[in-house]
């Protein structure tokens, strides 16, 4: 890793057996591209996944499968660090310190927590889910991250990370030698929010309707069925109009993102055609993109030692960076260094 390049950090939770097309287009694809210009560090945030009380065996399996999907999509361990969050204990340590800098009201305003706790009821939720954005800030600040590629739903969490970085710097450092870098979000507008195929008013999400999801590891038949049953609308005109035609617009966005054909060009090409024609074309571009990823994941999972080796190597290198940042921050806030 060359230290003269800006740093990118991002992560996903191992909360499902497969990532979905929203994760891929909104985040993972950007991660792969940014390796060309940035020092890249990517993590599978297994500690975050504990907030939803997963079965131990499922968590273990999903942690490896998530890492395998990063690699299969093009995260290159020769150029980037890839590790499991729990292998770098500094994440949890910095999170504690940051939680002492976070206002209770400030954390209470996080809309994702409000939505998730409203869904299950306040009594069924846990403190980890509440402080989750603080752990996310720790993930980012430990690596002096310049850029964080994510989908739109993470914007508010990133704003908190920025505020905490600024607070740390203004309370404990001088302007000319800040303690941590203030991170910038990197959100690509066209793919910032991919919508659920069955409910195009909501974002495609692991916790959404299965019929509205395109999973990276689904078999091609299931993917095709779901795309063909995607909700469109009553008229038959293929036009890009996210407000009045959210389903059709979502299919056009997905096609364009994967084929590279601009949306306006697609609209012109499909002029006078039926929704069915568009869906057949989307099935084809999705399969062309996901087929090779699926195959690579199968290969990687057949060699678990190799995968674990990559994760161990990433954790060792990430930890060396994280340790230095944590020591600097501990010292600045007045904790006596251990001898
Ligand atoms: P959950 O439903 O459990 O909240 P999720 O499907 O939203 O999960 P996350 O693990 O929270 O997935 O997200 C991982 C990354 O993928 C984040 O950067 C997030 O912004 C991005 N992402 C998730 N869903 C979408 C989507 N529908 N469109 C674009 N990006 C998305
Ligand atoms: N909250 C994110 C996952 C996440 C993350 C991060 C993303 C945890 N730590 C650090 C970017 C940087 C989500 O997708 N739900």
List the helices and strands and how they pair.
Elements: E1 7-12, H1 21-34, E2 39-44, H2 46-49, H3 56-73, E3 80-84, H4 90-99, H5 104-108, H6 111-120, H7 127-141, E4 147-149, H8 155-172, E5 184-186, H9 220-228, H10 246-259, H11 263-269, H12 275-301, H13 304-333
Parallel strand pairs: 1-2, 2-3, 4-5
The chain binds adenosine-5'-triphosphate and L-tryptophanamide.
Q: What series of H and E elements makes up the topology?
A: EHEHHEHHHHEHEHHHHH
Bound small molecules, deduplicated = adenosine-5'-triphosphate, L-tryptophanamide
- Uncertain stretches of 5 or more adjacent residues: none
Share of helix among residues? 40-55%
Radius of gyration (CA) equals: 21 Å
- Total strands: the figure is 5
- Tell me the number of helical segments per DSSP (H or I, 4 or more residues long): 13
* Helix-and-strand structural type: mainly alpha
Q: Give the oligomeric state.
A: single chain
Can you give the mean pLDDT? 96
Major sheet: arrangement of strands: 1-2-3
Overall geometry: globular
Distance between the termini: 30 Å
